[in-house]
Every structure is written in C-alpha cells, then in structure tokens.
Amino acid sequence: MAKYWGIAVDDIFNTMKDRFRPEGAKDVTASFGYDISGAGKWKVTVNNGTLVAVEKTEALSGCEATMVCDGETFVGVNSGKVDATNAFMSGKVRVDGDMGVFGKTGKMFRKFVPPKKEMSVKDYLLDMFGTVESRFKAAASEGIDAVFAFDLGGEHGGKWSVTIKDKVCKVKTAIEGKPTITLEFSDAKDYVEMSLGRIDAQSLLAAGRAAAVGDINMAMKWAELFEKYQDPLGGAPEQELLVLKKTISVDQKFSTGPIIGRFLNGLKEKKIIPNKCPKCGRLQFPAREVCAECRVRADEFVEVGPKGQVRYMEYVYYSSPDPLTGATRETPYGMAMILLDGCKGNDTLAHLIRRDQIDRIKGGRDDVSGTRVRPVWNETRVGSIFDIKYFEIDE
Amino acid sequence: MAHRKKNRNVGIIGIGQTKYSSHREDVNQPEMLHEAVREALDDAGITMKDVDCIVHGNMELFEMVHQPDLWHVLGTGGYGKDCIRITTGGTVGATIACASDNLAASGMYDIVMAIGFEKLQEGHTTGGITNMADPLWFRNLQTGALTGSKAYDLINEFGDERAKRASMTYRIIMDKHAGLNEKAHRHFGLDFAQTDDLIKNSPKLVGDLKLIEMCSQSDGACAVIFACEKKAKELSKKPVWVRDHITVHKEETFNIFGYHKDYPIKQTHRFAADHLYKRNGIKNPLEYFDVFEMYDPASWWAVDWLRDFFQLEGDEHIKLVEDKEIMIGGKMPINPSGGVIGSNPIGATALVRIAEAALQVRGDAGTHQIPTPVNHAIASGFGGTMWTVLTILEKELNW
Q1: Which residue, A97, A120, B108, B387, is most buried by CB atoms nearer than 10 A?
Q2: Residue A171 in 3-state DSSP?
Q3: Cross-chain residue pair B124–A314, CB shorter than 8 Å
Q4: Quick check: A22 contacting B, CB < 8 Å?
Q5: Yes or no, beta carbons of B127 and A315 under 8 Å apart
C-alpha cells in the first residue's frame, strides 16, 4: 500500500471514528464520497451529529458531495502537510456535488496525527502517570482510602504517589503520606514494559526486579480501580481481537459413600476414625474404600488421636484461591501432615495449623517428634473437614 | 506386569511447536493449535490427507472447555479423522505420545499425530490443579502444585547452604538454556554471580520454594507425528525411533516423600527408571544417554529427581549440578530447551520434552543443539501426585 509521509490513505479513513467531533457535526445529515485515485472509494455518512458509517465501496452513489483527488494530496490535506485551499485552487482536488455541504467536513474531524514512531521510557512514564486520573473508575472506589506509591529506579526512574480518597484520585510526583502499598521497580523500564503487557508482574517479582511492600491485596485492586493503560503508539490489540472475560460460579455437591461418610460422621462426635488395611496395616486419612497399594477392602475402623505431632508443615505464602468458593485464603498459612497418637510411619492426617502459631511449628523426622498439636473443634459440626477448625499447639 | 515387544517399530517424523508465551491474546485456541500442526506437517513433508488418527490432549478444567477436541477440529484438521482425546493431568503430553506410539505400533494406523496444548492465561492454573484433589478433604487444603516439601527434604539431607545453592544453580542453568531457545517463554538473563542474591531475595511461595524456582504458566501447543517403520523410512530422512516407554501411577496422596526411614514411600520416578532400563538392558543410564529432557516443575524437584532417573546414590546428583555437568556441553545435558521452568503450557509440556529430545537426536535443535552427537535420548513426564512417564528415543534401529 502506498504511503505518503509514512501514512497510508487507509489510515485516514480507519481513524475517522476516533477523530470524529460530534460538536462539529451538529445539524449535518449527509453522505460524503471520496474517490482517491489508486486507493479506492469511500462513503462517509453522518446523521445529525452522529457518524453513522465509514465504508469502502466499489461504486459511489447517493452522496451529497464527492472529493476526487490522488492519494498523496488526500493524505497531505488530512495530515496538514498540504494546504487544502492551494490544492483546491491548483486543481489537485475536485469536489463534485454540493461544495457548501462538503465544506462542513473541515470541522467534523480532528486533524490526523500520525502516531509517533518511538516513545522513550520517560515519555511513557509521563503518559502513564499523566493519564491515571482520567483512567480512574470512581464508581469502583467506594470505601477505598489508600495511597499507592511507586518507587521506580534506573535512569528515567522517579517517585509517584496515587491517592484515592472519597472516590477522588490524585497523582503527585513524589511519595506523600503513608503509602498503603509501595511498588518498587529496580528499573523504571520494567514498569513500563509491564504496563504495556510485555512482561508479567509475576516474572518480575520472581527475578527480584520488582517488589510490593505493604498491603498486597490493595495492589491487586489496581486493575479494578483504573482502566487499562492504552499505548499511544497503537500497541493495543486491533478491533477484532477481543478478550472476553467470564467468571464461572457453580454449586457443587459430592457424595461421600459409606466409608468416607463414616469417617466424616465421626468428626461430628469429635472422633477421628480412619480405616485400616488388613494386609499392610496402614491407616487411611480420610478413610478410603480400599487400600490402593494392597488392592484389598479396608473394613476395620480405628479411633486415633485426637492429639498428635506435626511431621511436616507447608508454610504457604502464596494466596491460593479456594477453588470451591473463589475466596482467597489468608496468607501465610500452615498446612500440616499430622501423625495422630496411635498412628505410625506415614499415616498422617492433613489439616491446617492455627495461623498465629505457624512460626513455632517444628516438623518431626524418623524417631524425633515434631511439635505436639491438638484439634480445635467447631461448635457446629456437619461432617466436614472443617468440623476441625485447625490444630493448635498442645501446651 | 506383562510387557511385550512392539508389533512394529514407530518413528517420529514431524515436530511442530508454537512460541511459548504468556501473551497469546492474538489467537484463539484452534488458531494456536494450528500453528503447531502446520509446523509439524511441514516438518514431516506431509499433509492432513496422510494422517490417519489424531490424539488430542490437555489438562481438564484449566480453560473450562469440556470437549476442546470438538472445537479444535478447526485447528487440528481432525474433520473426518479418527480422533482420540486423552487427559491424564501433567503427564498428558507424554501419555498422548505413548498412545500415538502404541496406536501406530499396533498396526491400526500408519500415521498418528499427537497434539498437546494449553492456554493457561484463559483459566486459573493453580485453581485447576487444586481441583484434582479429593473434594471432601485435600482440595480444601492444597495449593495447586506448590509444595516446599522437597526443599525441606534436601535441606535436611545436604544442609541449608549446599541444598539452596544446588537448586538455584540448576535454576540459573535452565535460564541460560532458555536463552538459547527462541521458543522458550521465560528468559531473565540470570547469571551464577546472582546465586546468593536470588536465594535471599526471590519471593517465597511455600517454605523454601521460591517464585523464581517454580515453572512458568505458558500458552502454547506442540504437535508430534508418529509413523510406522515403513512409512517413517519412506517419508523421513532422519526418523527418531521410539524405543520404549513406561507409565507409573499411584493413588492420590499428598504425603509424597515420607517422614520416616523405616517407612519408605514408593517413588514413581525411581520405579519407572528401574523397570524401563532393566527391560531394555541399560546398565548405566548416565553413560548410555546423551541428553535428558526432564519434566522439571521446580528446580528443587529437578535436582532431587536426577538421583532417581539416573539411579544415583548419595550426593552424586548434587555434584552433577554443582559441577555444571547438566549444562549444554556437560556430561549429561538436562533440558537444552530451558525445560518446564522456562516454558510450561501444561497439556503440551510433557510432549515438548519428547519433541525437544527428538530434535536433539536429529541434530535439528538449532541454537540449543548440544555440540556432541546424540544417539540416545530420554524424556520424562510428571503429573498427578507423583505420576511418571518415561520415554526412550533412539537415532538408530540397532537395539
């Protein structure tokens, strides 16, 4: 496709919707034709202040006025490289039909500004923070009182703070007040790349090139509070590339069967009753229909515990969403494999540890005991894993 | 366990992979698969007319599409073909390769195409993995595939400093390999000088498992074409022969390593390696194989598993890492592709191991080709709560 000053004829038409000024088209109801030699024919229809259609067409008909010229002149006039009056006077542009009506198109569209070829990190940072207030979604900020601080290092780095209070957003080029969350990037370039969707935040955190200090949950809210930053260089996906978002919520129910059912019913009575493999003797938590290793039914139930020792605890920092409810678990939390009294080897029960005690838990190994723990039962017990709230240190 | 010799030999004749990335919003699922299918067909020099059967696989629930093989006919070319869908969790990529090999070896089909894919950005990976667990118990406690238990074990066995440095050294080597593979998803440009820094500063996920040590979440697809010996020799100048594979499953359990020396837990990787090498008469796998593409979901596990896969004892596996013998150019290059820590489109991941191992055998791995000849390669798959698939590839039909 031929380009003039780096601009194609199509670029002018493709951006008309974005450049349209309704205030410049009041009381205009007309179709305008464009016959650009070597590039094609377009029909632009306006109805009382609204741009109805910009269509490429084989044959122009029903137009009040039609502009006829070559591609270079068309691009030149629209991008300000060629003086429109001179072009008209010199015959490079001809208008067929109602010249008076066609004159109105001059006010209907903002001038075409070719996208800049490059933006520096500094340009991007100015644009990103310069548009924060206009991208703010006030309606989504109900009840939020927070300061987001940005501490960006590197050559073009700097400090910014974004304050949200009473559904108003203010940006300052310094860190002011007490930040709720501070986002630190060792190189401002990484922040720009992340905002443009070229690197994901997790990768930067993993590589130690970024850190979030403070209320991480507030950091997660950023995407809800602000519209996504749009790259002025047009890095945004084209119109037909949509990403459709869906959240699925499904009520589920699971049958226990009689074996695990008996185990869960035991919890209602504050009893922990695994079943025992008649062949290898291992106890199963929760009880299972068979011993999968010996391929025999495990019919005998044995009451154990309820106290025991921790063999190993997963110290979990990552806030995994609960797949049953979608709720995010509070972190850090401890998931422990607990060897209840009366059990041996690897016959452990998996459960949670009281959150304020996880730093004091020691795992056991071989004949060395781990921290002693006891279950804390729920007042209401329904035969579920959470009839035990968690285990706590037995002191 | 009865295991008989193949009815006929099967060779890999075509390999296709997309670029792995966390940003494939530019294509939908069928389009993404098509990129891999197109490349595999071109690589084999055949068209869909030549393909008799398609074996399609990914993780269930990750994208919440329940019959993706229906929708994907647009991209797989499966219209009117025999299509089989398989899903076995993290091992699925290796399982579809095993199934394709078995289908071609049986004589039922001459040419079978295995297609593995995942578009992890379209769902929730950790949520999806957590859904594999018993909904009445473990699902309420588990955090996807994240566990610090292997780090805990290695630290117990080899001491805090040595264990942590081994894991991070492995991680940095994988990053260097990923930097050589233009299709890899993540490459940070890490260097050994950063080892202590990364150990200290990379955010922790669970216990001593750090964010940098965990695999990525990628979008991507891989297609591998398997052909019976006759077709493979007709169509391909350098078919890569599938010598044997083994699959070892066990029950769902989250007590995967054991806490007492008197009560060992069956380790499926060691079990798979022992059986597979024995029935193929391979006495010393470290000497026999020239390259290993391992399903390494995290660097801690990877370091530990070297001991199982190569039947090593004591700290031999730690030394392999410390001496950087697992780098391209070393004694046993592990994952010249950058491995799973570099790229992890889960349903494709285990198939990518086989595809990459086959590229090494062919000498077609380009910038990440190992410099010495590759005659014997091995590839592993991992999933479930410790499930293993192990596959041997050969350059010649002389075994």
Answers
A1: B387
A2: strand
A3: no
A4: no
A5: no
